[in-house]
Write a structure and sequence with these properties.
Number of strands of chain A: 5
Largest interface: A-B, 54 and 57 residues
Shape of chain B: globular
Oligomer: heterodimer
CATH topology of the largest domain in chain B: Aldehyde Oxidoreductase, domain 4
Structural class of chain B: alpha+beta
Structural class of chain A: alpha+beta
Number of domains of chain B: 3
Helix content of chain A: 25-40%
Strand order of the largest sheet of chain B: 3-5-1-12-9-10-11
Largest sheet of chain B: 7 strands, mixed
Largest sheet of chain A: 5 strands, mixed
Strand content of chain B: 25-35%
CATH architecture of the largest domain in chain A: Roll
CATH class of the largest domain in chain A: Alpha Beta
Order of helices and strands of chain A: EEHEEEHHHH
Helix content of chain B: 25-40%
CATH architecture of the largest domain in chain B: 2-Layer Sandwich
Radius of gyration of chain B: 27 Å
Distance between the termini of chain B: 62 Å
Strand order of the largest sheet of chain A: 2-1-5-3-4
Chain lengths: 159, 764
């Protein structure tokens, strides 16, 4: 089957790539674009490790065909820092012990970003809902929730 | 208490930044030019003889570079003890569990490799299988292995004091049957590796929680000396024991394919492979008998444990040992008898998981103690305080406790409003039944096994005053990299940022037993401390010579070096480093250290002596609601009063306790493989339910400081203890809510609804 050419914005920069029609967004990100920050856990849309933001919404990139990215804005974990400066969510996760093994972390941070982009001052319940699609086996979630609360505070200060 | 600069501080993880940015590379993130992909063909039967394997069609598929079967490993098998090495990399004569690895393919890409596995034709003769441990023990049951009788994989016995006499003299004796479920460790990173065989030997970048296990396995399997096996540790996406503390078909096949083809070979297991084939927690049946005096004093305990070992032995002997080794803690127990049987079945292999061995028998003993207390009219707190050990203490099986924070922990929980007011609002007809439960448990730290136990460390001073710390210990998420760097920084009077950790590369890092049994902070910590002190002593000599004082008078603090009580005699650490390295003909300053705690002889066969260097004590309160209509349990609150001696990094200790308690909660309430004739019916994360953010209670962690004299800076273990304490506190709380004792994990809504219905019928 022939390759499809798609164009999209990748972490704020224009990107043009040829992909096989059956390729998943996750395969394109990890194997074609070599951005390995996005992880594959289950490959079935359950664990949330592959969460990225496509068109302003979080998606499990293992379930989405790569061609869906055409004309969209795609944000991966690599797109969050500004140069050497961590995004406030990343900074909060570092300071508040929001990760342990770190495998789920990029996906959780992307879910947190999508949440805070829409709901800058979320309640604890909204945070729990916002990351309900992300498994974490290490932290028991408490420190993840605290990290997102701290990030929301920091981002409030930024504005 | 000495004032520390770095130890005891809430310092962010040293690997936090690379993990938050996605820069941290895990095994599956590695790729190399010309790399091949390895895929495994797995058995469709749980028990079958392999009659023939025809690989010719697979070999002819374009893109396929090699195919291997069990015979290519020439009869090599591995296992934890010499007499239990029964597991081949690929099945040879027969398959013993469903989805056991049978053959493997190396191809130019993943899809081709996958396709080729489907072209391998295996002729099987299906054999009758056996899937329940108690059935497998019976005479005439299908035999999983020929080398043992009645499927007895391991038996382990302890006998201390005189239980029969004690039971005769007891006021109350209880006998109950308990059962623990079939759980998976639950790491999200599937096992993966990239292997390369070249003229230097084997190099493998593998997702291993204890890289020195696979290092030895590969050397043995491929008949290479250890200095020709290089295991490089990427970041590890969770371990929790079992699979990532062992080797896998994928490891051996990838190495073999690289040897044959000269190309790097990669494999990544799918989550389905993880859930169907990777090592899981033993399902155990515990027949427990306990004796008590009228005042609640425990007189004796006898446990008969039957564990479903699955198809191979793996680390089973240690699992069985651990079911009994610390049953004599945390409550005084003068008479104890223990008989544990690990039984082969045609289920996937059982092995270690966080809270290894202890979680099963402690669940049984905790519940039984409280059931008996209820009969005697004693409350759950009172019975625990009555029997709790205090330090110093030596158990009947010669386990020595140097520090014990159980009484303080329990009393702390007893003072909380959650405990004091627990009966308020009870007895109504509301939909939600409220319950509050307790547990008090113990776990070993600084675990020792048989064989190699020591940890090593090398601290290398760079001439600009920065420091490299080389460790053989692996951080699979627990935070040990951070704590170990803190230790080096503390000793040298530096900041964490001044130390760079060099993670495991068996070609350069010192050998280490591994990350299991809560041993890293205690043992690798001791090694790190000694190696840093070695550097400090070398530098102190240089400084002392310059200032003409004794080396003992030199202090290292806040990146400075000075003579104690003489403010004029001071210089920066980096200046001293330069002076030391450049003076005269120059010097290269390297410090080394290794741990030697716990080297007294252990009687492993009889379960006597120290299984670890020290013991953590965890007191846990769980508050929950039970929906009387649906049986659904909502955990609302957990308070964990945890004695880890001294938390070297309190935020990480909190995080460890929280994560462990939630893993334990999952085990208590819903985690369960559904098995049907050896087949895992729920091999995906939708069907195998682990806790999500919506399921968790508020968790408060209270540090009980006991400063154990055997650990670095007073530290003991943190994390496995709270996994052990969670299930009994949850079961105790469900009993408090419903009046029913649930003795089988997981305590699912179905079980609760049925039991409530039965209770109501009886009540009418």
């Amino acid at each position: 089957m022939e390759m499809r050419k798609i164009k999209f914005t990748l972490n704020g920069k224009p990107c043009e790539i040829e992909v096989k029609p059956w390729r998943t967004l996750l395969e394109m990100i990890r194997e074609d674009l070599h951005l390995t920050g996005t992880k594959e856990g289950c490959g079935e849309g359950e664990c949330g490790s592959c969460t990225v933001i496509l068109g302003g919404k979080t998606v499990n990139s293992c379930l989405v065909p790569a061609v869906e990215a055409d004309n969209q804005e795609l944000i991966t974990i690599e797109g969050l820092p500004e140069g050497d400066k961590l995004h406030p969510i990343q900074e909060a996760f570092v300071n508040k012990a929001g990760m342990q093994c770190g495998f789920c972390t990029p996906g959780v941070i992307m879910s947190a970003k999508a949440l805070l982009d829409k709901t800058p001052a979320p309640s604890e319940e909204e945070i729990r809902e916002g990351i309900a699609g992300n498994f974490c086996r290490c932290t028991g979630y408490t420190k993840i929730i605290e990290s997102i609360q701290a990030a929301a505070e920091m981002m409030k200060g930024d504005k | 208490m000495e004032e520390y600069s770095v130890i005891g501080k809430r310092i962010p993880r040293v690997d936090g930044r690379v993990k938050a940015t996605g820069e941290a590379k895990y095994a599956a993130d590695y790729e190399m030019p010309g790399m091949l992909w390895c895929k495994i063909l797995r058995s469709p039967y749980a028990h079958a003889r392999i009659l023939n394997i025809d690989t010719s069609r697979a070999e002819r598929l374009p893109g396929v570079k090699a195919v291997c079967t069990g015979k290519d490993f020439q009869g090599w098998r591995w296992g934890w003890m010499p007499q239990t090495r029964d597991e081949p990399p690929l099945a040879v004569d027969k398959v013993r569990y469903l989805a056991e690895a049978v053959a493997a393919v190396a191809a130019v890409d993943e899809d081709t490799a996958e396709e080729a596995t489907e072209l391998i034709k295996v002729d099987y003769e299906e054999l009758p299988g056996v899937f329940e441990a108690e059935e497998a023990m019976q005479e005439g049951a299908p035999q999983v292995h020929d080398y043992v009788k009645n499927n007895l994989s391991v038996d382990f016995h302890m006998d201390f004091g005189d239980v029969e006499k004690a039971f005769r003299e007891s006021y109350l004796v209880h006998e109950d049957r308990f059962e623990t479920g079939r759980c998976i460790t639950g790491y999200l990173e599937p096992p993966a590796a990239v292997a390369l065989w070249d003229s230097t030997g084997i190099t493998i970048w593998a997702a291993k929680q204890s890289p020195y296990f696979v290092y030895r396995h590969l050397a043995d399997c491929f008949k290479l000396p250890l200095n020709k096996v290089r295991v490089v540790q990427p970041f590890i996406g969770g371990g929790f024991g079992g699979t990532k503390n062992d080797s896998l078909a994928g490891d051996f096949c990838s190495v073999l394919f690289s040897k044959w083809t000269g190309k790097p070979v990669k494999f990544v297991y799918s989550m389905k492979e993880v859930l169907m084939t990777c090592r899981r927690r033993h399902n155990m049946i515990i027949y427990n008998k306990m004796g008590m005096q009228k005042d609640g004093t425990i007189t004796a305990m006898q446990s008969r444990v039957i564990a479903d070992g699955g198809a191979y032995t793996a680390i089973g002997p240690l699992s069985m040992y651990l079911t009994g080794a610390i049953s004599t803690l945390p409550y005084k127990l003068p008479n104890f008898k223990h008989d544990a049987y690990r039984i082969f079945t045609n289920n996937p292999i059982s092995a270690a998981m966080r809270g290894h061995g202890v979680t099963h028998t402690r669940f049984a003993a905790e519940l039984q103690m409280e059931m008996m207390a209820e009969q005697l009219g004693l409350d759950p707190l009172e019975i625990r305080l009555k029997n709790a050990v205090t330090a110093p203490h030596e158990t009947v099986n010669r386990v020595k406790v140097h520090s014990a924070g159980l009484v303080e922990g329990l009393k702390t929980l007893g003072e909380t409003p959650q405990w004091k007011d627990k009966d308020q609002g009870k007895g109504g007809e509301e939909q939600w039944l409220q319950g509050v439960g307790l547990s008090g448990t113990c776990y070993l730290g600084g675990a020792r096994q048989r064989g190699h136990q020591s940890c090593g460390a090398v601290v290398r001073l760079c001439e600009d005053g920065t420091v490299d710390y080389l460790t053989g210990a692996t951080d699979c998420g627990q935070g040990s990299d951070t704590v170990l760097v803190q230790i080096v920084a503390e000793e040298l009077g530096l900041a964490v940022e001044d130390i760079d950790i060099k993670r495991v590369d068996t070609a350069v890092t010192p050998c280490d037993a591994g990350s299991y049994g809560s041993r890293v902070t205690v043992l690798a910590g001791e090694a790190a401390k000694r190696a840093a002190q070695d550097v400090k002593e070398q530098l102190a000599k240089v400084a002392a010579a310059g200032w003409q004082v004794a080396p003992e008078e030199i202090v290292f603090k806040d990146r400075k070096v000075f003579v104690k009580g003489t403010p004029g005699k001071a210089m920066s650490f980096d200046k001293l480093a330069k002076t030391a390295c450049y003076s005269g003909s120059g010097a290269v300053i390297i410090g080394k250290g290794y741990s030697d705690y716990g080297i007294e002889v252990l009687d492993f066969e009889r379960g006597a002596g120290m299984p670890g260097t020290s013991f953590s004590f965890t007191s846990q309160l769980t508050a929950l609601d039970v929906d009387r209509e649906t049986g659904f349990v909502k955990c609302k609150e957990m308070i964990i009063a945890h004695d880890c001696g001294r938390p070297l990094n309190p935020i990480n200790v909190e995080a460890q306790n929280q994560g462990a308690a939630i893993q334990g909660m999952g085990q208590a309430l819903y985690e369960q493989f559904v098995m049907k004739q050896g087949q895992t019916m729920n091999p995906n994360l939708a069907g195998y339910k682990m806790p999500l953010s919506l399921d968790i209670p508020r968790i408060e962690v209270i540090d009980i400081i006991t400063d154990d004299t055997t650990g670095p800076y007073g530290a003991k273990e943190a994390s496995e203890g709270a996994h052990v304490s969670a299930p009994p506190s949850v079961a105790s709380a469900i009993h408090d809510a419903t009046g029913i004792w649930f003795k089988e994990q997981p305590i699912t809504p179905e079980k609760i609804v049925m039991a409530l219905r039965k209770k109501k019928e009886k009540g009418c």
